Inverse folding.
């Protein structure tokens, strides 16, 4: 479940330290991926059923990381955030139609748990760090 903000080189160490603290304090969150969705001309995704635990995790993340780097992207603010698990981005119209057809075949719902949090760089995607959610 993404949360996007821009980090300068000086912000990365602070972000890694904050992520490590946050992950150690946060419990894994059970989620149910219940539907296929898309952001027009942006991404295809699986959407979870929204729960209080999921919203609390995201609000906690926002509170902690809003002090680091540039302001987070507006659509990741707690009142604007659309929880999602991205399946595909940057696809042509023809590829999008095919990707949607494939995604619609997924047997939903899928019960799973958020057990890890990380920092990625993107365009292209590159995982920088990852931490397990530690409070069980």
């Amino acid at each position: 479940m993404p949360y996007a903000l821009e980090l300068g080189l000086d912000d990365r160490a602070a972000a890694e330290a904050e992520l490590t603290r946050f992950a150690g304090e946060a419990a894994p969150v059970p989620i149910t991926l219940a539907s296929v969705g898309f952001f027009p001309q942006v991404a295809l995704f699986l959407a979870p059923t929204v729960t209080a635990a999921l919203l609390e995790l995201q609000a906690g993340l926002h509170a902690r990381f809003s002090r680091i780097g540039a302001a987070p992207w507006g659509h990741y603010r707690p009142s604007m955030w659309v929880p999602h698990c991205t399946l595909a981005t940057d696809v042509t119209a023809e590829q999008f139609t095919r990707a949607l057809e494939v995604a619609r075949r997924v047997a939903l719902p899928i019960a799973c748990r958020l057990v890890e949090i990380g920092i990625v760089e993107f365009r292209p995607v590159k995982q920088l760090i990852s931490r397990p959610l530690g409070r069980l």
Notes: The mean pLDDT is 87. Residues 9-25 form the longest helix (17 residues). Helices lie at 9-25, 52-65, 93-103.
